[in-house]
Every structure is written in C-alpha cells, then in structure tokens.
UniProtKB/TrEMBL annotation, chain A:
Residues 660-807 form the AP-3 complex subunit delta domain. The keyword Cell membrane does not apply. Signal peptide: none annotated. It comes from Nothobranchius furzeri (Turquoise killifish). InterPro entries: AP3_complex_dsu (IPR017105), AP3D_dom_metazoa (IPR010474), ARM-like (IPR011989), ARM-type_fold (IPR016024), Clathrin/coatomer_adapt-like_N (IPR002553), Mu_AP3 (IPR058898). It is a peripheral membrane protein. Part of the AP-3 complex, an adaptor-related complex which is not clathrin-associated. The complex is associated with the Golgi region as well as more peripheral structures. It facilitates the budding of vesicles from the Golgi membrane and may be directly involved in trafficking to lysosomes. Involved in process of CD8+ T-cell and NK cell degranulation. In concert with the BLOC-1 complex, AP-3 is required to target cargos into vesicles assembled at cell bodies for delivery into neurites and nerve terminals. Residues 622-694, 714-1020 are annotated as: Disordered. It is found in: Cytoplasm; Golgi apparatus membrane. This is AP-3 complex subunit delta-1. Its main location: cytoplasm. GO terms for biological process: anterograde synaptic vesicle transport; Golgi to vacuole transport; neurotransmitter receptor transport, postsynaptic endosome to lysosome; protein targeting to vacuole; synaptic vesicle budding from endosome; synaptic vesicle membrane organization. It comes from the Eukaryota.
From TrEMBL, chain B:
PROSITE patterns: CLAT_ADAPTOR_S (PS00989). GO terms for biological process: Golgi to vacuole transport; intracellular protein transport. Gene3D superfamilies: 3.30.450.60. CDD domains: AP3_sigma. It comes from the Eukaryota. GO terms for cellular component: AP-3 adaptor complex; cytoplasmic vesicle membrane; Golgi apparatus. This is Adaptor related protein complex 3 subunit sigma 1. It comes from Nothobranchius furzeri. Part of the AP-3 complex, an adaptor-related complex which is not clathrin-associated. The complex is associated with the Golgi region as well as more peripheral structures. It facilitates the budding of vesicles from the Golgi membrane and may be directly involved in trafficking to lysosomes. In concert with the BLOC-1 complex, AP-3 is required to target cargos into vesicles assembled at cell bodies for delivery into neurites and nerve terminals. Residues 1-147 form the AP complex mu/sigma subunit domain. Its main location: membrane. Keywords: Cytoplasmic vesicle, Golgi apparatus, Membrane, Protein transport, Transport. It is a peripheral membrane protein. The keyword 4Fe-4S does not apply.
C-alpha cells in the first residue's frame, strides 16, 4: 500500500498542470492533434488515481481542452468527484468543468443533487457561490424541482453576495420548473427593495426577463417599478426597468401616459448615452401604444426624433447605428416625422460601415412613396453596382424587392419599370436570391394583367440570352430566374411576338445543363409554346410552320427524355409521344390545335397566402385523428424516398383551379363581397385599388410608351430602367395637364364661379395614378374564412410555461417540494369547515366548462371585460397546471384537499390586485375607486391563512411585511393620483362604468359565471357604498364598512377624508367611543380611549383614505358608535384646532361578505331545514330587475346564485358564518323577498336595511 | 440574456469560450469560427454591433464586440440587453482583468483561462449580468483566491523550502503535497521553472507594446 502511494506520487511528478499543457500545445504547433491525444491519455491515467488533487488537475486540463473543441463528456463522473471535494480549490475546478460541459442529457447530473444541496447550505459563502454559479449553467428540470426550495431560502441569506446569486439563478429555475414561479414570486418581489443594490439589480434583472415574455402577468408590478425608476440612480437598473416598461406599455395605455413625463425628464437630464437611448426607445414604445389621443404627442415624437438625429449625426458609429435602429421603430407608426430626415438616412447609405448601411436600408423601406420610389431604387441600384461583398449586395437586392413589393406593390406606378429592374438584377453574379427575383417576376406577370405583353417580351429575351446567366456554374443562384422566364413565356405565350424563336431557345441543348426543376419547367412550357404555335397557324393554308414546330420538338425532346432527373424525363417522354401523334395527324391535315390548346386551358387566380389556414374546421372533424389504423413502425423508413420528388419542387408553383367553373367563382365572389360589405371588421380596400382590372380595361392608364424595344432588349445586360424615370415623369405631367384641362372644362361648364382655386400646387400622393393595377382584391379567400389572424407562439417556447398569474394567492399545493417535510405535509391540510365553501368548490370542472362557453359567447370589446376573461383564462390555466401536478407527483397526496381551498380563495385577491393597479393608473373619482381599495384592504389586512405557510420557518414573516409595503405604497400613489384627478373629468363617467362592471367581476367572482345574464343587459347606473359620515366647512368624511374575510370578529372601516377648504389640514386624529360590543383596534400599548393619528396630511382639495379595524362580538344587531375627528387647519396666517363629531353606523349588511355559492349547494342548504324564514315586500320599485339585483349585490354583499326570468336566488354569508339566502321575485313594481337565515334577528335587520335601500331610491 | 461570451485573438484562436446554452463541442467551434470570420473582417472604425450570426441565435440576437490589441471580446446577446450597456460591461470586464492580472496581456489569458472564468463568473451568471461594479468584483475574486491559498497555506509553509529546493533541482518529488504547492505556483510567477520562465518573460516583452495599446484603447473607449 505504502509502496503504491510512493509509486503514484513519483508518477505524478511527471504530470503536467494546465500551464504545462498550454505550453506543450504551443510547442507542438505542427502535430497539435497528436500531442493532445497523448495528453488526453495521460489525463485518463490521472483520473484513475485516488488522489483528488491529481483528479482536479486533470479536470482543469480537460476544461481547457473542451474549449479547444474536444469532447470531454466521458469524464463527467470524474468531474462530479472533483465537485464533491471538500476543498474550495478543487470544488471550484469541478464546478467550472461542469458548467462548461454538463447539459440536460448528461446522466450523471442526477448524482449531483445532494452534493449541490450540501454546497448550497455550506457555511462558507464561496462554496455556496460556486455551486450557484455552476448550477446556473447546467440546471435541469429535476435539479430545479429538487433544489428550488433551497435556493429560495438562499434568497434571504444574510450575505448579499449569496442573495444576488440566488435571486438571479431563480430565473433559470423558473424556466426549468415553472411550478416554482408562484411560490417564489413574493420573495422575488420583495428583493426589488433589497437594501443591497446588487441584489436589487439582480431581482430587476430576473423580473425583466420574466416580464419580457409574459408581460401581462407583471402589470401589477408597474407601480413598484415606477417607484424604483424615479428613485434609483443605478443606470443598469434604470435601463432594465425602462426596457421593461417598454414591454408593458402596449398592454396598458394608461401606464404610457404616466411614463411620458418622467422619461422625458430623464432624456433631458441624463448624461449616459445608454440610458438616454433606452429612454427614447421606451418613449417610442409608449407613443406606439398610444398612437392616437394625446395632443402633445407630436412634442414627444419631435423630442425623440431630434435626439435620435443627434445620435445619428454623432461621429461614434455605435450611436449612429442605434439611432437608426430606434428610428426604424418610430417609422412604423409615425412615418411622417422620420421622412423629414430622409437626407440623413440616404447619407448613411454611403457609410463605410456595413451594419449602418443595413440599418439605413431598413429605414428606406418605410420612406418610399409613389413619388420617390423610382428615385430611391435608382440610388440603390447604383449601390448594387458598387457593392463589393456579396452579402451586402444580396441584402440590397432583397431590400429593393421588399421596397417595391411592399403592401401589394402599392408604390409602383409603372410595372414596366419594375420588370426592367428585375431583369437588371439578374445580372448580379453569384447572388443567392435568384429565387426571389423569379418569384417576383411570376407574381407580377400573373397579377398585373396589363404587363404581360411586356413581361413576356422581356422574358423571351432572357431565355434567348440564357447562356449569359448560366455561363458560369458559380452563378447558379441566378439561373432560377430562367425558371420564371420559361414559365411566363409558356403560360402567356399568346402575347409572344415570335413564339417559334422562343421555342427554339427553350429547346437548345445547353438547357440540359440547368438544374432539373428548371429543365422540367422548360419542357412543360415548350409544350405550351408548341400549342400556341399550332393555334396561330390554324386556318393558315401553308402548314409548314406548324410542321416545323413539330419537327423541332421531335428532334430536341429526346435529349430530355434521357435526363437523369425523373421529373424532366417523365414530362419529356409524355410530350414527345404526344407531339409524334400530333405530327401524324398533321400529315393527315387534321385540325388539332383546338385539342392541344385544351391541354393548357384555364386562367390563374391569385389565392391569398393565408387562405388555407382560414378555412374553418367543420364540426366533428378531428384533423389529428387517424383515418386508418396508424401504420406500423417499420413503415416509417419507407417515407424517405418521397423527399426526392418533393425536394426539387419549386416553392412558387401555383395550383390551378380549372375545376371550378367561372359562374361558380363569380357567384362566390359576389357572396363574399356581400359578406365583406356587411362585416364592419373587414377593412375595405381604398376605392382606387379596388378597381379590378378585368372589369376596367383601363387602357388610358397604360402609358403608350414608345420604347424602342428592339434595341435595348436584344442586349439584356444594358440598364434601361432609368428611362422609365423620365417616362414616368412625362406621364405624370401629361396626366396633370389632362386633369387641369378637365378641371377647366368643369369650371367652364358649371360657371358657378365660386372662385375656388383648383390648382393644388405640388402633386400629392393620391394624384399619382398607377399605370397598372395589381390584381389584389380578387385574391381568393375561402368562404366563411375566419377573420382571426392569430400567430400562435411556438409550443416549444420554454417561456410559455411561465405564463402564470402571479397575483393570485398561493395555494398550499404550490409549495415547493421539500424533501424533509414531505411526510408531514400530508397532515397539514387545513380543515375548512365552512360547508358552503366546500360544497361550492367541489365542481371546478363544471365551472370551467361553463367559463369556456361564456368566453365564446361574448366577445365584447369592452376592455374591462376582456381583462376579466383573461383572468378566467389564467385561472383555468392554473387549475390545469395543478391537475398536472396532481398526476405528476403522486407522492404528495395532500394536494387533493388543498386544491379545493385554492379554488375558493382567488377571486377577491386577484381582483384586488388588479384594482390596485387600476387605482394607481386611473384618475377616476375617489368613491367608486376607493371602494375597491377597501376590498384590497380587507383582503390584505389579515394574513391569508391559505397562503405561504409552514414549509420553511422563515417564509412566515414575509406575508405581513408584504402587506405593509403594499399599503404604504398604495397610499402614496393615491396622493399622486388625486392631484391629477381634476385633469380628467371627462373620463370619470366612463370609468365609473367600467368600475361597475368590474365590481360585478370581482364581487361576484365565481358567481358571475352563474349569473352572467347581468352583463348582457343595459349598463347599470354608477353606485357607491361610501356614505357620508360627517361634514363641515373644512372637511368631508365618507366611510364604508367591510367584513373581514379571515377573521370573524373584525370589520374594516375605510374612511375617506376630503379637504374642502383652501388650507392645509394636519394632525388629524380619529377617535371612537367604544361600546361593549364593538371596539376600535388601537396599537398595542395605547389605552382604550386614545385616539388614532391619521398618517397623512391633506393639502387643499385633496382627499385620502384611512382604514380602521374594529372588533365586534355580536353581529346580529346594527349599532352606532360615536366618535370625533380632530384636526388642525393651517393656512398662511394662522392655524386653528377644529373638531368634527360623527356617528359610525355599523349595519348588519356590513357584516355580510360576498360569497359565491352554487345552485346545488344552495339547494342543499335550503333543504337542511336549519334556517328560519322571513319575508318582506317592496312596493313601487321602479327599476329593471337586473338593476335591482345588482343593487342588492352591491350594497348588501349578496351574490346571485341563480336567476330565472323575474326570479332570483341570492346568497351571502356573515363574517361569523351565518348563511343568508334570499329569493327575490318581481311582478309589476312589487318585489317580494323571501329570506332564510340561521339567525332570525340578523335576517330581520338585513331585510330592514334592504327595504331602506330601496325606499331611498 | 447573454447567450455566449467569446474571447479569441486576431487569428481566431479561442482564448475563452463561455456558452450559456448548451451546444455540441463541434458546433461551439463552428460558432467561434463564424463569429471570428464576421468580426475580423470589420474595420477598426465601424460600429461594435453586428447582426446575422447564422449559428448562434437568430434575428433576436446581436453580436456586440470590442477589439483590444490582439484580442476580440465578443458577447452574443438578445434584445433584452442594452447594447451600450454591454459595451460598458466588456470594458468593465477588461479593466477587471487588467487589475487582477496586473497589466493583462494575451499570455495571461492563455495560461490562466481558469482564472478568467472565475472572474467572469463574478460578473455574469447563467447569462445574466450579476455585478457591474468593478471594485466589488475584484474584492470577491481576491477573497476567493485568498481562500484558495489558505487551504494550502499550512502545508505550503511546511514544505515550501523543501519543495523549492527540490523543484529547482528538478529531481525528487516531495510526494503527497506536490500538487498543492504546484497550484500555488500558478499564482506566483516567481516559481516558474527557470527555463520556461525566461521564455514567458520574453514573450511578455514582445507583447508589451501590444499591451500598451490594449489599455490605451480601453481608456479611449471609456
């Protein structure tokens, strides 16, 4: 043994370390591979030894070799060994190696779980740090699931060094294990306000990454980020936040409005270019999202464009590049403001930097108009000539085509010019984009009927000069053009001047050197040409031409029959036999041209690219179902040969629609037009482009161009598009002159002599009439095509799984799995005793299906509603996910029962968060809004029992903290908001409306599904629960009382204080004389008669809200509490002490809590017989039934269980668990309310209150 | 997100490659080659952004690079990163390297690629920017290096004399702790074997002028 050690150590003397290895490699430049392979052998020996130091050294060398491209995955196990060394030095080497070469399919990764967990909890912060760093590179779904909880604990580590790493790695964990997002999110959010800037920055980083993919889930964080943005000085953080806002604004235009001001300030104040640039970018995003509305838009746009111009003019190429990049974003929505900088952008086209030229090209795309298209393209063509590298030239080529073809050739006024541009482009050597040019040629020739004559002539010349294109095999890409040329000449051969010549050109032996798919087109189209020749010769007594043609075909086609390409061979042999037969007939003087032409009869119709996609799937058709039994596995191999045939098939071949006869087509078209006319969502084409070419021959639109065709066309290399620029100018002038003439005539005819000046000076866009019409409008679309145009996200996108609603409270089932506690968890399912809740939550399935139906039913445009829908959707998603979890993790049986709780809890809090955001964003009036805030308060005031609980000891304190934060935050924002309140009185009413609906959404929560009828009927008048508490000349106080969902003995009183005078109100104190039954909760240590200080002051005209918690014992009787409010009125001269007395009225209603209930649960409740009944009648109620219900729901916290015509059952529950059931019926202004409750006194009082509500109105 | 960080020299030899997404070794090499090809043909005075790496990323990704003397520092990032921010980050990275290696030159990166990795790990983690404050980065790197040393310090002090004499004689190994002392050698350049040390020294001189530009560029760009 000892000998072995000695021997081992002697061996090791000769070991190399990393430096030796590097040096060795450098010294063996000639036989590097060989040297390295001996080194790898040595490393393998070293790895076999027991000494960890030797192993670590070997692994270190492997890491280096990995960088050089050597596969080192065979050493994965040794890497794990080194990782688990107790020494930091080796551990670090191990983790580095792992981070470089481990990945998801490395199987030894599963061995590391425990080691990593140990390292994460190591007392040495660098062990933890190194483990986190390594893990961030190779985390797998399994590791993420097993370690999520450990990492989450580390987020609250005492050392900021660990905290920031833990926060950052959470993003990776979320990606791999999306279920961890919701449990970890509260803590992540908390880290946004970490005292350490590094941690804060990490948290911002993570949330920005998350929000970038699923922005809508993070809207509720906007206020927090807004605060960070206005307070932070760290440019890194600012940049991230500003970028995040850029992603959020499209979802919430109100946010944009809020952002404009601080961003503009930053733009003016910052000296950091990076920050300035990001601000400009986000302002642009905001402007895009607002796009219309605010009048001071133009100022912001101008500011942006102006700043960008400064960037572009800067000598720093980086800034120039970014300036152009941002400019292209503005271009999309505000092309006008960019177009004024055309000079600058054209200048950038001459820049020596390719990146900048490319960006400038992008901009050009949006800057063309009918007027300047020719000019710009001419300039680009010059660049094409000058361009040295092929990539840039190819880019230019595609850009030219993009620019010209954009929005259905909108800017092209003369297609002859365009065709000649395309022909000129074929001169480019070695371009990859032959395909593109070819498809453009085909497209134009097919869709612009008037151009066919010209196009065919040009194509014929191209074919004639094909050798110039194919001379060099290097030019392979461009010979694609011949494909188009041959096809156009064949298809539209009736326009050919000399078909025989072209036929001859197409059958030259040289053609056989072209790629197979082109040859195939040649052969096919030769046949078409042949048919044309025959037709033209028909009736001609001298049949020599026709016979010559047949002979030519028979002579030349055998070459193609021998082609190696199957397609060519097949076509050629078919056609050859056909021609031979025709020749026979010809010799007998039989007229054959008719029959031959019939082979190729039929007109092409353009089909919209999305047509197929938009055909709705008929009911009952499952496209994924197998029609026959699935084939056995072995057959799949046979599918391979198929590709041979389809591979060569060119993309742009168009299907023929010869089967559908003209009448049918016309009928369908008519029907579609009718439908489009009736469809308000169908955007009709402008009248100018709606002219269908066949219907209006439009001969006057085609310029009678006197081109000396014979000269330039014989040499296709010559640039001749230029002449069109001149011609076009002439044409336009002529047109203008004609127009003037017409105008004059009109004026003369009318002689009304209004003295209107018709001379419009410079020609406007609309005045330029295109010379040719593009056949756009008649694009075929299937009948009853779906209007939706949704591009779905890639299902493989890992971020899709992270689309999770984060505002919902946590369910126990979502706790991160903790190994050690798993057994205990089973017992932890909290026993929920409320019968109603449990029953109601038993049928999530039923509900979700109803939701689905609901969703389909109303595609209301109301934004609020759609928000609600989204919520529902999210909710459903969540449920599904939980279900997945259920099946996935059978080892945690506690889920079943816990999920039931989950279903009950969401509505209040989700809506609370949303309304909180609304609150922050909107400038709506206080009453309707604060109502919601009160809900927030109610939801927040008490820690939710179901939320994050016992798993980790340190997770407990975070809930209340969170609440606190939330509260201070919201009050802050309220102040801000109220300042702006007056600016926006217009919107008030609208908003009230929204809020109302909203209320139904959240108050009702789940039951809005059941009583969805409410939404369909006419909108409800605005309502508010706030009633006046007291008022004097200084202050107005309103209040609302809400029961506390979590605590049966608490109610929350929200009080709004509104300053009515011109002075400052401060030192406000609130006091209530407690009764035996009800007591104001005072902070610990204060006496029972002490007053509470209100934590804010009120400037003139401002209102704010405070909340007070009361404990009550018996809730069956209403009661009143006397109280006083004292405050100091301070103005410039003096300050006076004032006092206001009030009486707080605790109605029985205020002890009721809106609780959803399902009809069967409701029925059970009624059947149980425990309830006492009582009833009232209301006379002279003069409002629609749904208003009545809404009022009861709103003012008395009921929810509708079921509604049938003029009869509805309603339910509510008191904070102490009394069930209150109502049956409301209406018949001609008389409303009868039959009620049942397990507490008759309470019921009586509630009914009295209901009666009072309706007597008031 | 940062997808990859590459450092290579004017001839395309990789000096550091860090991919935050897994690629096969062959593809990694191809990416390095392609990136080098794209970056190396650009003039000095053009902008530092580059689109169109075929292999890595796609339309959402950009290459952001800086060229210092003999080395290219290339970051491949997606649209969530601020372009100018990343340029600053590269600057911070290089300045940090300069502080940690005391006048860094290409040779430092060649022989101590592991250290460069460790420094980088304090700046970027899993593709996200971890720390941008140079002092903080250096503090953490130094502390870890100190810790590394301290792990061997007891042995080092015991064996250092023996080791030095033995090693310089180049005959007998001290056995068990040889490796540990050797890893100290990594950080103390004085312990280089004489012959090689001279060579190294020589090369360093050759690069001195390059180093000057290296830093000059650094300051000019900031």
């Amino acid at each position: 043994m000892a000998l072995k050690i000695v021997k081992g150590s002697i061996d090791r003397m000769f070991d190399k370390n990393l430096q030796d290895l590097v040096r060795g490699i450098r010294n063996h430049k000639e036989d590097e591979a060989k040297y390295i392979s001996t080194c790898i052998d040595e490393i393998k020996q070293e790895l076999k030894q027991d000494n960890i130091a030797v192993k670590a050294n070997a692994v270190c060398k492997l890491t280096y070799l990995q960088m050089l491209g050597y596969d080192v995955s065979w050493a994965a196990f040794n890497i794990v060994e080194v990782m688990s060394s107790s020494k930091f030095t080796y551990k670090r080497i191990g983790y580095l190696a792992a981070s470089q070469c481990f990945h998801e399919s490395t199987d030894v990764i599963m061995l590391t779980t425990n080691q990593i967990r140990k390292d994460l909890s190591s007392p040495n912060q660098y062990d933890t740090g190194v483990a986190l760093t390594g893990l961030s590179c190779f985390v797998t779904p399994d590791l993420a699931r097993d370690l999520a909880n450990d990492i989450m604990t580390l987020m609250s580590h005492t050392k900021p060094y660990i905290r920031k790493k833990a926060v950052l790695i959470m993003y990776k964990v979320f990606l791999k294990y999306p279920e961890s997002l919701r449990p970890a999110f509260p803590r992540l959010k908390e880290k946004l306000e970490d005292p350490d800037p590094g941690v804060q920055s990490a948290a911002v980083n993570v949330i920005c990454e998350l929000a970038r993919r699923n922005p809508k889930n993070y809207l509720s964080l906007a206020p927090l980020f807004f605060k960070l943005m206005t307070s932070s000085t760290n440019n890194w953080v600012l940049i991230k936040i500003i970028k995040l806002f850029g992603a959020l604004t499209p979802l919430e235009p109100r946010l944009g409005k809020k952002l404009i001001e601080p961003l503009t300030n930053l733009i003016h104040s910052t000296s950091a270019m990076s920050l300035l640039y990001e601000c400009v970018n986000t302002v642009i995003a905001v402007l895009i999202s607002l796009s219309s509305g605010m009048p001071n838009h133009s100022a912001s746009i101008q500011l942006c464009v102006q700043k960008l111009r400064i960037l572009i003019e800067d000598s720093d190429q980086n800034l120039k590049y970014l300036g152009l990049l941002a400019m292209s974003k503005i271009l999309k929505t505000h092309p006008k403001s960019v177009q004024s900088h055309k000079d600058l952008i054209l200048q950038c086209l001459d820049d020596k930097d390719e990146s900048i030229r490319l960006r400038a090209l992008d901009l050009l795309y949006g800057m063309v108009s009918k007027k300047n298209l020719m000019e710009i393209v001419k300039k680009l063509m010059l660049h094409v000539d000058k361009a040295e590298g092929t990539t840039y030239r190819d880019e230019l080529l595609t850009k030219i085509i993009d620019i010209c073809s954009q929005s259905n050739y909108q800017y092209i006024t003369n297609f002859e010019w365009y065709i000649s541009i395309l022909v000129e482009l074929t001169r480019l050597e070695g371009t990859r984009h032959g395909h593109l040019i070819a498809s453009q040629m085909l497209d134009v020739a097919i869709r612009v009927k008037a151009i066919r004559v010209f196009a065919v002539a040009q194509m014929a010349t191209l074919l004639d000069n094909a050798h110039m294109l194919t001379g060099n095999t290097q030019r392979n890409g461009i010979c694609e053009v011949l494909y188009a040329a041959a096809w156009i000449c064949g298809e539209f051969s009736e326009h050919l001047e000399n078909p025989m010549e072209t036929l001859e050109a197409m059958l030259r032996p040289k053609v056989a050197t072209l790629p197979g798919h082109i040859q195939a087109v040649y052969v096919q189209n030769a046949a078409k040409l042949f048919a044309t020749v025959l037709k033209s010769q028909e009736g001609n007594t001298d049949s020599t031409t026709a016979q010559e043609a047949s002979q030519l075909m028979i002579d030349r086609l055998p070459l193609f029959v021998q082609s190696a390409n199957l397609e060519v061979q097949e076509r050629a042999s078919c056609i050859l036999q056909l021609v031979k037969y025709i020749q026979k007939l010809q010799q007998k003087d039989v007229e054959v041209s008719e029959e031959v032409c019939a082979l190729f009869a039929g007109e092409l119709n353009p089909v919209a690219p999305k047509a197929q996609k938009k055909v709705p799937i008929p009911d009952g058709l499952d496209l994924d179902a197998w029609i026959n039994e699935p084939p056995s596995e072995s057959e799949s191999e046979d599918e391979q040969p198929k590709a041979i045939f389809s591979k060569e098939e060119p993309k742009h071949s168009r299907p023929r629609h010869t089967e559908v006869d003209e009448k049918e087509l016309a009928r369908r078209r008519e029907a579609r037009k009718q439908e489009q006319a009736n469809n308000p969502f169908y955007i009709k084409a402008s009248p100018s482009s709606q002219k269908v070419y066949q219907e209006t021959p439009g001969v006057e639109h085609i310029p009678v161009v006197q081109i000396d065709l014979s000269v330039p066309l014989k040499v296709p290399g010559l640039p001749m598009s230029d002449q069109y620029v001149k011609l076009e100018e002439e044409r336009r002038q002529k047109e203008r002159a004609e127009k003037k003439k017409k105008d004059k005539k009109k004026r003369k005819e009318k002689r009304s002599g209004r003295g209107k000046k018709h001379d419009s000076g410079p020609e406007s866009e609309e005045d330029i009439t295109p010379a040719h019409m593009v056949d756009i409008v008649t694009e075929e679309m299937p009948e009853n095509a779906l209007p939706s145009d949704d591009d779905e996200r890639d299902p493989a996108d890992p971020h899709k799984a992270l689309d999770i609603d984060l505002d919902k409270p946590l369910a126990d089932s979502e706790k991160l799995p903790v190994r050690s506690h798993r057994a205990a968890e089973v017992l932890k399912s909290p026993a929920e005793d409320e019968e109603g809740e449990n029953v109601s939550s038993l049928e999530p399935k039923k509900k979700s299906s109803k939701e689905k139906r609901e969703k389909k039913k109303d595609k209301d445009k109301d934004r609020k509603k759609s928000k609600e829908e989204k919520k529902k959707k999210k909710h459903k998603h969540e449920e599904k996910e939980e279900a997945d979890l259920l099946c996935g993790q059978a080892d945690e049986p506690a889920f079943q029962s816990e999920e039931t709780n989950e279903v009950v809890t969401p509505p209040t809090s989700t809506s609370a968060d949303v309304s909180d955001l609304d609150f922050w964003l909107s400038n709506a009036p206080v009453p309707s809004n604060t109502q919601e805030a009160a809900t927030v308060a109610a939801a927040e005031a008490a820690p939710a029992p179901g939320a994050i609980s016992v798993t980790t000891p340190d997770s407990e304190p975070e809930e209340p903290k969170d609440t606190e934060m939330e509260e201070t935050k919201s009050s802050k924002h309220k102040k801000k908001k109220q300042k702006r309140e007056k600016e926006d009185k217009e919107k008030k009413k609208k908003k009230k409306h929204h809020h109302h609906h909203h209320h139904h959404g959240d108050k009702g929560g789940e039951e809005s599904v059941q009583n969805g009828t409410v939404e369909e009927e006419e909108p409800l008048p605005p309502m508010s629960n706030y009633c006046l508490l007291a008022e004097n000349s200084y202050i107005k106080v309103a209040y609302d009382i809400q029961g506390n969902l979590q605590d049966g003995s608490q109610v929350v009183v929200s009080v709004i204080f509104e300053n009515k005078c011109d002075s400052f109100l401060k030192s406000m104190e609130f006091n209530v004389l407690d009764s035996l039954n009800s007591k104001l909760q005072r902070p610990e240590g204060s006496g029972p008669h002490d007053s509470l200080t209100i934590p804010f002051q009120l400037p003139p005209g401002v209102s704010n809200e405070a909340r007070f918690v009361f404990t009550v014992q018996s809730i069956i009787m209403p009661q009143k509490l006397k109280g006083t409010l004292t405050f100091i009125v301070k103005n410039e001269e003096s300050s006076t002490h004032e006092k206001l007395d009030f009486k707080l009225h605790f109605t029985c209603t205020s002890y009721l809590i809106t609780t959803p209930c399902y009809s069967d649960a409701f029925a059970k409740l009624l059947e149980s017989g425990d309830l006492k009944s009582s009833s009232i009648r209301l006379e002279g109620v003069n409002m629609p039934f749904h208003h009545l219900l809404a009022r009861i729901c709103f003012h008395h916290h009921f929810s509708v269980v079921e509604r049938i015509d003029s009869c509805a059952s309603m339910y509510s529950r008191s904070i102490q668990g009394h069930h209150v059931c109502l049956l409301v019926k209406i018949s001609s202004q008389t409303v009868s309310v039959d009620a049942k409750c397990d507490e008759p006194t309470l019921l009586g009082n509630v009914l009295d209150e209901i009666k009072q509500t309706f007597s008031q109105c | 997100m940062i997808k990859a960080i590459l450092i290579f020299n004017n001839h395309g030899k990789p000096r550091l490659s860090k991919f935050y997404e897994h690629f096969n070794e062959d593809i990694e090499q191809q990416i390095i080659r392609e990136t080098f090809h794209l970056v190396s043909k650009r003039d000095e005075n053009v902008c530092n952004f580059l689109e169109g790496g075929m292999l890595i990323g796609g339309s959402d990704y950009k290459l952001i690079y800086r060229h210092y003397a003999t080395l290219y520092f290339v970051f491949c990032v997606d649209s969530s990163e601020s372009e100018l921010g990343i340029l600053d980050l590269i600057q911070v990275f290089v300045e940090t390297l300069d502080k940690c290696f005391e006048n860094v030159c290409e040779l430092d990166l060649i022989f101590h690629v592991d250290k460069v990795h460790h420094i980088l790990a304090e700046m970027v983690m899993g593709g996200m920017v971890l720390e941008t404050n140079m002092n903080e980065i250096i503090t953490q790197v130094d502390l870890q290096n100190k810790m590394e040393k301290s792990e061997f310090f007891p042995f080092f002090s015991l064996f250092t004399d023996v080791y030095l004499s033995v090693y310089q004689a180049g005959q007998v190994d001290t056995g068990r702790y040889c490796r540990s002392t050797c890893s100290c050698r990594i950080s103390c350049k004085e312990h280089e074997p004489p012959g090689n040390a001279q060579k190294h020294q020589h090369r360093r001189h050759k690069h001195k002028s390059a180093k000057f530009t290296f830093l000059q560029v650094a300051t000019a760009r900031s």
